[in-house]
Design a protein that fits this description.
CATH topology: Heat Shock Protein 90
CATH class: Alpha Beta
Strand content: 25-35%
Number of helices: 4
CATH superfamily: Histidine kinase-like ATPase, C-terminal domain
Largest sheet: 5 strands, mixed
Length: 171
């Protein structure tokens, strides 16, 4: 595979609740997925959670690899915190000029009405109980993905919560 090309320029965002810096570059998705998979394979083994990762065909992604890793870490941490601890999976698919990364966990208890708010700032679902959190994690994920030309969305069916990150492929 050819080496990723470096693009000049960077972006920053000042939002009412946060400030962050994005470095615009092209990178191989496997660079991020390998780090995330290695970390969570070990962590989930300790908790007894079944962890599966679908087949990944590598591709060049446009964005910030460090910020994408942060987004995936946040999604995994939420899956651990709010799931039932039985199973977490990560799968990949393609749609037009994008690579989709879906993290799913068993044991979600959010209603469809609540699901529409999970990317709102300071919003926390009815399933939080006494768990710590600020309600900013998925909001920040949403902002980061949009700044990188991608998106993020969630789905809830049959006691499985899925959060999908849409990454823009290099064209």
């Amino acid at each position: 595979m050819p080496p990723p090309r470096r693009r000049t320029g960077a972006g920053s965002c000042v939002c009412p609740h946060l400030r962050y810096f994005l470095k615009a570059t092209d990178f191989y998705l496997s660079q991020v997925i390998d780090r995330v998979t290695a970390y969570y394979s070990d962590k989930l083994k300790l908790t007894g959670t079944e962890f599966s990762v679908g087949s990944l065909s590598d591709c060049l992604i446009s964005g910030d690899p460090d910020r994408l890793e942060e987004v995936l870490q946040n999604i995994f941490e939420n899956a651990i915190k709010y799931g039932d601890g039985r199973e977490i999976s990560m799968s990949f698919s393609d749609e037009e000029d994008s690579r989709l990364i879906t993290v799913s966990n068993s044991g979600c208890t959010l209603s469809d009405q609540e699901l529409t708010h999970i990317f709102d700032s300071f919003w926390r679902g009815s399933n939080v109980g006494s768990r710590q959190g600020s309600g900013l994690g998925l909001y920040i994920c949403s902002r980061l993905m949009k700044e990188m030309g991608g998106d993020i969305f969630a789905d809830n069916s049959d006691e499985v919560m899925s959060v999908t990150v849409v990454c823009k492929k290099c064209g």
